[in-house]
Design goal:
Layout lengths: L11 H6 L7 H5 L5 E3 L6 E3 L5 H6 L4 E2 L1 H8 L13 E7 L2 H6 L5 H11 L5 E9 L2 E7 L19 H9 L4 E5 L1 H14 L7 E7 L8 H10 L6 E5 L8 E6 L4 E5 L4 H6 L22 E5 L13 E5 L2 H12 L3 E6 L2 H7 L1 H4 L2 H13 L5 E2 L12 H19 L3 H9 L3 H16 L2 H4 L16
Parallel strand pairs: 3-15, 5-7, 7-8, 8-12
Antiparallel strand pairs: 1-2, 4-13, 4-14, 5-6, 9-10, 10-11, 12-13
Bound molecules: flavin-adenine dinucleotide (FAD).
The site of flavin-adenine dinucleotide (FAD) has 31 residues, from helix 6, strand 5, strand 7 and strand 12.
């Protein structure tokens, strides 16, 4: 690391605190480490603590955001959203592709166009292996891009992306969630800097959280499937929000609306997240060239198929997006960074909860990753009382998950947790549907005429 801070020790604090996110950087840096699914927490984590090499690259120990940003985007000045050249709302003009995708289908359009124009030799992106297992795959044919899945929300071992990067010659694009790219770049920068030049473009996903496999185990109880029998799983597709869809080897098909199914609200509430997500400050994927997320805006609720929020951090990212518009592959309008805040909320964009929760955990004396992003100090940290209450709830609910008491967790949500649950819906309805902020003059909506060509 080049930020002047030295790292000591190994991964024992990461293992004890359950803060691993499964990026696999430790496995690449230290041959003694193996990452596997912990049978109690149901997250991927190292079996053994390894040594200093593993700790140096681990994003659950520290991320040197300032150093990595100046290394990746030389000469650019990071603001509160990281390095930003421009922000856009975009949608693929291919209705089928857009419907199958998680938001606007932008990622598939970007990858297809880079491969077709011979600007890259291959794409490293997540694909389905079997059951709940997903791993990165090398895609070299533009027509193969559409076979990649939409967003996968459960925790994964992402080492395959790093192995492909190490072993594949040529010019590459890589798709990844923020913590995955943190691990990748820390490993490349400190242990394999020659790999930097292979990466022509990183396509990042905006990411609020991922989930431990307890989410799927709970849904299995609620919907009546055995997680060990899962053949395939999808979380999105078919519209802006989409459904959780599970098929089993015996031919069973199970689905749940992600917006209204009560079981889904229980199994995918934030207490089921991997623990590090609660201290993550990098929702906006500060280390990716082109970042894609959902445009959750009052001005985009009209969409039947989904609209992507796109952040361009480099000139190449802007050029690729402009090329897609010129070629008629996507429609796009430029907006301001305030749409990132409106779509994702200050709570996550500025780490209002994460910084406060990390402070609370530090005061309790546990292992806490050292994460100080360019967004620090731009939001209002949540009050100590609120994070302390969350922590008590989390400890209690993680114990219930470990004991597989998913039915009790459902009962709990319907009784003890009913008030915050209802409050969340009321807030969503007021902001997105009733446009309360626009009506009260707190913000200006993007006029509908600007979305001509969007569906
Ligand atoms: C764990 C997770 C959390 C997210 N949280 C948010 C959020 O809070 N707010 C928000 O606006 N957007 C979030 N997103 C991003 C959003 O769901 C869409 O992925 C994004 O808008 C891109 O949509 P698309 O239609 O362009 O891409 P798609 O056409 O749906 O393509 C998705 C691409 O991402 C890759 N991919 C899918 N899952 C993963 C994964 N787990 N790890 C690495 N690569 C993966 C696939 O290989 C594919 O290339 C999240 C995504 C993930 C995976």
């Amino acid at each position: 690391m080049n930020d002047g801070k030295s790292i000591t020790g190994d991964l024992s604090g990461v293992i004890a605190s359950g803060m691993c996110i499964g990026c696999g950087a430790c496995e690449m840096a230290d041959g003694s480490v193996r990452v596997s699914l912990d049978p109690t927490r149901l997250i991927f984590q190292p079996e053994t603590p390894g040594g200093l090499d593993a700790a140096t690259v681990c994003p659950a120990v520290r991320v040197d955001y300032a150093g990595l940003q100046s290394w990746l985007f030389p000469g650019a000045e990071p603001g509160s959203h990281g390095v930003v050249r421009s922000v856009h709302l975009s949608q693929s003009t291919d209705e089928g592709r857009n419907l199958r995708a998680s938001s606007g289908g932008l990622i598939k359009e970007v990858l297809r166009s880079m491969l077709s124009a011979d600007r890259i030799d291959g794409v490293i992106a997540l694909d389905h292996v079997e059951g709940l297992e997903f791993a990165s795959r090398l895609v070299t044919d533009p027509d193969d891009v559409d076979s990649l899945p939409g967003s996968i929300y459960h925790n994964l071992r992402q080492t395959s992306a790093l192995e492909l990067l190490r072993d594949t010659p040529g010019r590459l694009a890589i798709v990844g969630i923020p913590c995955q790219l943190e691990g990748m770049w820390q490993w490349v920068r400190t242990k394999a800097p020659h790999l930097r030049d292979k990466v022509v473009l990183t396509v990042g996903l905006l990411c609020g959280w991922q989930y431990s496999h307890h989410s799927i185990a709970a849904m299995g109880q609620y919907l009546g499937f055995d997680p060990a029998e899962i053949d395939d799983i999808a979380y999105r597709g078919g519209g802006p929000v989409g459904k959780l869809t599970v098929t089993t080897r015996g031919g069973g098909a199970f689905s749940a609306s992600r917006r209204v199914d009560f079981g889904y609200q229980v199994a995918f509430d934030r207490h089921f997240n991997t623990t590090r997500c609660h201290v993550c400050v990098n929702h906006s994927n500060f280390l990716a060239d082109l970042v894609v997320g959902d445009a959750w805006l009052p001005s985009t609720v009209f969409t039947r198929t989904g609209v992507s929020l796109v952040v361009c951090r480099t000139a190449l990212a802007e050029e690729v997006l402009a090329g897609l518009v010129t070629d008629g592959r996507c429609v796009s309008i430029e907006v301001g960074p305030e749409e990132i805040r409106e779509s994702q909320t200050d709570r996550v964009v500025f780490g209002e909860f994460a910084y406060a929760y990390a402070d609370h955990l530090r005061a309790l004396g546990g292992h806490v990753p050292d994460l100080h992003g360019p967004n620090e100090g731009h939001g209002t940290p949540k009050p100590r009382r609120q994070v302390a209450k969350f922590h008590r709830e989390l400890v209690r609910k993680q114990a219930l998950m470990a004991a597989r008491r998913y039915r009790y967790l459902k009962w709990r949500k319907a009784t003890l947790e009913l008030r915050p649950y209802v409050t969340r819906y009321v807030r969503w309805f007021a902001v997105r549907i009733l446009r309360i902020k626009s009506l009260s003059g707190q913000r200006r909506e993007i006029p509908r005429e600007r979305f001509s060509g969007f569906r």
